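Lab notebook, design round three. We kept the backbone fixed and only want residue identities now. Task for the bench partner: fill in a sequence for the structure below.
Input structure tokens:
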């Protein structure tokens, strides 16, 4: 469905094998509910695809505005991680986290699968021009039989790049940055996997060849009204 706010924080990562089960318990029972208690956090979802060679996990936190991710309440949480967070955070691998501003959102319902394509701007092309180039791509994908929703967002590294006590617990982040991310929803993982090639081809045909495209099943979704 259409995203709930005008911004989100998006993440991709792996977890050390010995911590995988504990990560899923922590993320479902404590971490996502904790985040949804912060002002401006509206909905979150966790994706998983154990068939990927790297970045098996995906998470997205939808927020009212980019300011939702720099609020004093959220910063206090980031600088005062729980004991459980302190135990799990060192197990993160291949971690990438980015705040984004929503540039387009559309669709109905919440999909059971999703595909993300993150990519950089070609030299000489600004974000507004890129959005215009991608308009026909988005329109076509929204009519694709396997796709139920399409969202496009621009990376805002200035919102999400600060060091905190929580970031210090994870291994350093070395993943390549991106400028734009297209996030398409499907009814499940098989449909996401089937749609991924079409999404990649359509974005590449619009002039954005430097993509990382990853399909996921949606493992858990939590909305703010369910978080307390």
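Proposed sequence:
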């Amino acid at each position: 469905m259409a995203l709930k706010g005008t911004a989100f924080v998006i993440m991709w990562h792996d977890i050390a094998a010995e911590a995988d089960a504990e990560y899923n318990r922590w993320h479902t029972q404590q971490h996502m509910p904790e985040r949804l208690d912060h002002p401006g956090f509206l909905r979150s979802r966790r994706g998983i695809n154990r068939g990927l060679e790297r970045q098996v996990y995906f998470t997205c936190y939808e927020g009212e505005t980019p300011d939702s991710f720099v609020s004093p309440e959220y910063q206090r949480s980031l600088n005062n991680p729980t004991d459980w967070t302190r135990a799990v955070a060192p197990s993160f691998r291949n971690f990438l986290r980015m705040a984004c501003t929503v540039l387009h959102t559309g669709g109905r319902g919440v999909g059971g699968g999703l595909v993300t394509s993150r990519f950089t701007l070609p030299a000489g092309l600004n974000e507004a021009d890129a959005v215009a180039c991608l308009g026909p791509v988005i329109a076509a994908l929204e009519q694709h039989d396997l796709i139920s929703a399409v969202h496009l967002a621009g990376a805002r590294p200035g919102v999400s790049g600060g060091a905190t006590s929580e970031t210090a617990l994870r291994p350093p982040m070395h993943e390549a940055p991106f400028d734009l991310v297209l996030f398409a929803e499907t009814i499940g993982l098989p449909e996401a996997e089937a749609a991924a090639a079409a999404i990649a081809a359509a974005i590449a045909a619009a002039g954005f060849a430097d993509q990382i495209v990853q399909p996921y099943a949606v493992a858990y979704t939590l909305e703010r009204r369910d978080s307390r």
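Keep this in mind before ordering anything: The mean pLDDT is 95.
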